[in-house]
DNA sequence: GCCAACGTTGGC
DNA sequence: GCCAACGTTGGC
């Protein structure tokens, strides 16, 4: 089982939208970046991810589960782009802000800090546990 | 709102 | 295959 981070602008697609989709989940479509796509190709059903709000909020706000493997992105006819479906699992008790992540030495290598523009990122098991602890949330 | 970082595109 | 131009993202 692996861990990931999904970044979204809440004004476009936010945690509340994700929760509203329930257990059926929703395509994480619209990714037009090869690195991000390749990570989605590596995902397996049952993998967990952080749901991160970019821009104004800049915080991890929830945990999602990958519920399909990578498939064609229905938002384009371009066969290059694929995506997985994810569903909301639980919200963070306390959102973990980018500021808090940057303030934690053990998280200084997180992709969130190092490559801030990448919208789908891998998270290590150690990072996963630390961020969950910061958010008072069950891993 | 600005700007740095970075990915993509297209001309050569 | 290189690189300049351009567009986009996201933190500040």
Automatic annotation (TrEMBL):
SUPFAM superfamilies, A to Z: PUA domain-like
Pfam families xrefs: EVE
Q: Which residues form the EVE domain?
A: 2-133
- State the protein's name: Putative RNA-binding protein with PUA-like domain
Which organism's genome codes for this protein? Sulfitobacter guttiformis
